[in-house]
Amino acid sequence: MTHPIHDQVRSALEACGVTVPEGADLHARTPITGEQLMGLRATTDAEYETALTTAGEAFTAWRDTPAPVRGNLVKRWGELLTEYKDDLAALVTAEAGKIPSEAAGEVQEMIDICDLAVGLSRQLFGRTMPSERPGHRMMETWHPLGPCGIITAFNFPVAPYAWNTAVALVCGNTIVWKPSEATMLSALATDALLGRAAKDVGAPEGLHHVVIGDRTLGEKMSDDERLPLISATGSTRMGSEVGPRVAARFGRTVLELGGNNAAIVAPSADLDLALRGVAFAAVGTAGQRCTTMRRLIIHEDIAEEFTERLVQAYGTLTIGDPSTGESLVGPLVHGGAYEGMTAALAAATADGGELLCGGERVHAEEYPEAYYVQPAIVRMPGQTEIVRTETFAPILYVMTYRELDEAIAMHNDVPQGLSSAIFTTDVREAERFVSDAGSDCGIANVNIGTSGAEIGGAFGGEKHTGGGRESGSDAWRAYMRRATNTVNYSNELPLAQGVEFL
């Protein structure tokens, strides 16, 4: 009997106006059952060249379009995303295995960034600064880059694309998007709605393109000098390949890579609040978020009590088919993720770790090609190499500390630097954690978990997380080039620094 998700996918694609390039090069699959949804044809070399050429041609018209007018396109896109939110969320659930509320939340992030970008279209501010030369004015101005390449990952199939695209479009750029091979249908639907928005507002043709293929297509984009910016979301390994390739041609990158995120739970913490914050951050999206909490550093005085409560909370989790709306934890993306989880648990126990709960595969008889797992908690004697390694699965390593400085040092002693949190009601501890001497991550939270960032702030991290920033704040500057302009409105030609040249 065919799972209802197949009909839901077809209905959602039809509603969004998607024409699927049918073929046998690639296959859309759902981790809910492990079944294939449909075959797709990969983008050919000729189609890729056409996409790059038309994106370049459209750029020359789009950059001359006033920024507030460019904002009208993003405004209309946001309206269509709102109208078709349920259809897009259904595709995200089908391809990424997210529970409905998380899938809908991801689409809401797209809508929210459109709102932000529309406002931004009237606020692409430069600066004016005083000149040392009389009769001169200095200013900085910001200008579009050109066609921007965007590479996204399976776990957030649409939101990071919108973070980049909504902002890049109002900045005057065009878009070439390579989605993950695991979430191609979500990408096609999202792009179709952007295409409808472009027609509705009379935007130039060729502003946006989706190209479908495997990692070799991402490598091709990374090497393509016609793409002055590559924004890539994925693993640290992927970023270590994309970054040098783009740098070799003096291109720009926005890299959003792995996270090995931790929370410190202090003795003064509201333990009820901390329990909820830790549980969602650790098991949401089956541990397949870059902001998933993977390490828990608890004060010795409360470690036993809090760990016991957390294990009990894990025992209440409903794990299963996310499309029913009755589960809290959906599947891992594929068998490779499950193998990575079991290998990490084996390494942790070999290092002296104690598996407190979880790690088992469930629903294997019902869905032999899908990989549902019980989220795991492992008590560790210290921060071993496996703890310092990101495993993209729901494993939470628990360790203890005595002094806050010890906890912060342990927290920072990993290669990744994306998100972090402390649970405390001591203002001194909270302020120290977010100070220069505290968390070394791009995101540092107090009394909330490590996941669930809002679009108003810049999103991204440090160290092996890549250093990129997307979404709000001044992240828009990554999609523009800066020019310093000096205007001489006098009848003289004085030189800077008092230089005389006759």
TrEMBL record:
Active-site residue list: E256
Annotated SUPFAM superfamilies: ALDH-like (SSF53720)
Superkingdom to which the source organism belongs: Bacteria
Pfam family, one: Aldedh
Keywords attached to this entry: NAD, Oxidoreductase
Residues in Aldehyde dehydrogenase domain copies: 26-482
GO MF term set: aldehyde dehydrogenase (NAD+) activity
Subunit note: Homotetramer.
Classification via PANTHER family: ALPHA-AMINOADIPIC SEMIALDEHYDE DEHYDROGENASE
Protein name listed in UniProt: aldehyde dehydrogenase (NAD(+))
Source organism: Kytococcus sedentarius (strain ATCC 14392 / DSM 20547 / JCM 11482 / CCUG 33030 / NBRC 15357 / NCTC 11040 / CCM 314 / 541) (Micrococcus sedentarius)
Lineage, opening ranks: Bacteria, Bacillati, Actinomycetota, Actinomycetes, Micrococcales
